[in-house]
């Protein structure tokens, strides 16, 4: 597991906090791989948010546990979650943003398909029982290049905007 520790506006992180957050990410992967929805749910705060790679939102530890129980007993049975912790950035001494990458390895595969790679943006918070996941957004890694302003896609977009304005179609900016 590789990680870069970054500090934000918070005071310097304690080594044990960083180690606990690294363990939390490792436990996230391990609970999934074990198909243990109860252990998976225990990693979250009661009021946590989970945004899946398809954009759906689940709120609350119970919902995450319930959804993953169905997944672990259904379409993702016997799958493994493999990944790396990329960075931890402390916003306050009790809140950090964690970035990681992971992919679901299905039991019939020996290697991960690149199209399955996801990046997790995770907000972790210190609780009475240790660091827990307060929010997670899981999005597929689909890098695209941003076209230069003089590139064909940019020129075509500006042309289409002028045509739309001329014929009065599209967004109405006067609202």
Mean pLDDT: 90
Helix content range of the residues, please? 25-40%
N- to C-terminal separation? 50 Å
Structural class: alpha/beta
* Gross geometry: globular
Neighbour order of strands in the largest sheet: 1-4-5-6-7-2-3
The total count of helices amounts to: 4
Radius of gyration: 21 Å
What amount of the residues lies in strands?
A: 25-35%
The number of distinct β-strands equals: 7
Low-confidence blocks of residues = none
Largest sheet: 7 strands, mixed
Could you state the order of secondary-structure elements as H and E? EHHEEHEEEEH
General description of the model:
It is a single chain. By secondary structure, the protein is an alpha/beta fold. 31% of the residues lie in helices and 34% in strands. A seven-stranded mixed sheet has the order 1-4-5-6-7-2-3, covered by helices on one side. β2 and β3 form a beta hairpin. The N and C termini lie far apart (50 Å). The model has no long low-confidence stretch (mean pLDDT 90).
Index terms:
4 helices, seven-stranded mixed sheet, 175 residues, alpha/beta
Summarize this structure briefly:
The chain is α/β, with parallel strands linked by helices and 175 residues long. It contains 4 helices and 7 strands, in the order βααββαββββα. Strands 1-4-5-6-7-2-3 form a 7-stranded mixed β-sheet, covered by helices on one side.
């Amino acid at each position: 597991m590789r990680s870069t520790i970054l500090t934000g506006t918070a005071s310097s992180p304690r080594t044990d906090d960083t180690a606990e957050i690294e363990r939390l990410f490792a436990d996230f992967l391990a609970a999934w791989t074990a198909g243990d929805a109860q252990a998976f749910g225990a990693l979250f705060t009661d009021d946590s948010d989970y945004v899946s790679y398809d954009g759906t939102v689940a709120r609350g530890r119970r919902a995450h546990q319930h959804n993953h129980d169905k997944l672990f007993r259904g379409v993702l049975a016997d799958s493994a979650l493999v990944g790396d912790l990329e960075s931890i950035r402390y916003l306050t001494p009790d809140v950090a943003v964690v970035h990681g990458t992971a992919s679901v390895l299905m039991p019939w595969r020996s290697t991960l398909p690149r199209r399955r790679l996801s990046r997790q943006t995770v907000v972790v918070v210190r609780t009475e029982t240790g660091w827990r996941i307060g929010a997670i957004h899981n999005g597929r890694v689909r890098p695209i290049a941003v076209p230069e302003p003089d590139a064909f896609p940019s020129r075509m977009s500006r042309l289409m905007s002028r045509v739309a304005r001329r014929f009065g179609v599209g967004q109405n900016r006067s609202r």
